[in-house]
Automatic annotation (TrEMBL):
It holds the Pfam family MFS_1_like. The keyword Cell inner membrane applies. The chain crosses the membrane at residues 21-43, 55-76, 88-105, 111-130, 150-170, 176-195, 207-228, 248-271, 278-298, 343-361, 373-393. This is MFS transporter. Keywords: Cell inner membrane, Cell membrane, Membrane, Transmembrane, Transmembrane helix, Transport. The keyword Transmembrane helix applies. It is found in: Cell inner membrane. CDD domains: MFS_MFSD6. Residues 217-403 form the Major facilitator superfamily (MFS) profile domain. GO terms for cellular component: plasma membrane. It comes from Tamilnaduibacter salinus. Its main location: membrane. It is a multi-pass membrane protein.
Amino acid sequence: MPTSLPRRRTSKTGNNRSVDIYWRLSGLYFWFFALLGALLPYWSLYLQDRGFSYLQIATLMATIQLTKVVAPSVWGWLGDRTGQRVRLVRLGAVIGSVCFLGVFLEPGFYGLLLVMLAFTFFWNAILPLYEVITLQGLGRRREKYGRIRLWGSVGFIASVAGVGAVLDWVPVDLLPWILLPLFAGIILSTLLVRAENPQPKPPAPAGSLKAIVLHSSVIAFFAMNFLLQVSHGAYYTFFSIHLEQYGYGKLATGLLWSLGVLAEIGLFLVMHHVFRRFTVRQIALAALALTMVRWVMIAELTEHLVLLVIAQCLHAASYGALHAISVQYIQGFFGHHHHGQGQALYSGLTFGAGGAVGSWLSGFLVDGISTEAAFWGAALSMVLALIIAWRGLQAPPTPDFDH
């Protein structure tokens, strides 16, 4: 009996620490994606209300993705070198929020472009750094990542539905004021994350990162995700405007955006079962095919609410499944030493470059033809992604957590 008491105390302490880490790590995901949930569906409507053209809207929306090309690499390198990722996340949250205040000066197109570039340069530094903080904090308990990450989806849903309801009652030009509490939530949540002991890493062996990046399967992985985000350019930039053209109100628009993320949450909750039954290659190919079907349905069947609901449920494939396998690829291929830079490359080359290119291309298609044409273009990019994945995608190595 005496020997059993210490075991109980140790187990309880371990459980309490696990719960504490869970809630501390979950908070920033909630607020970060709550802000994203207010920006992606409604910022294009705000810009349209300000009188900007479709090409100007596409350019301004592209900045949200464009700075991901540079910012995550710069901040990821600093995080890997200094080991001060939590402090860098706090810095990005504060300075990014201050930069956003330039919106209230109501600048013209070029002034707003400068504000958006400055704000997103610091804001886009947060998530790639935080993904590393989360995965290192979990260590071998990486199966809990999905449960923590789903709070980002909860924040997105709460925000997109709540802001949509509010904007049905107040003018859309008040959107910047609605965003301010979300910025405050991001800043406060960064203060709850415990700072690491700074442990800067020694320089990597010469050429090791280059060897990883030039691996054929890694090239296929990045190309597949680049085209995936190109296809999402039409969705993130013009889906709300597309729905408005078909007579959907802002609350209905918000609920449809929320439905997609709700489907994503459902997938995250059962993703471990999916991984047991299928390989990452099989999951990737199926998800890419379903994403192609989704864009075709939005292009041609928007007036049919039931079919539009089904299309939005396919967000579980086009984001949830493909993001889940991408986390495994980054962990497996880039390992412990290059994890931060791998995460930054993933964010920059796919969400950043792919998202920006997709926004601009969709802007030309909408300006010259229609919103339907933009979604057909998205479907075409998924055909190319399927071909690349079929020919070049392989299973990632098993990640090493011993260091």
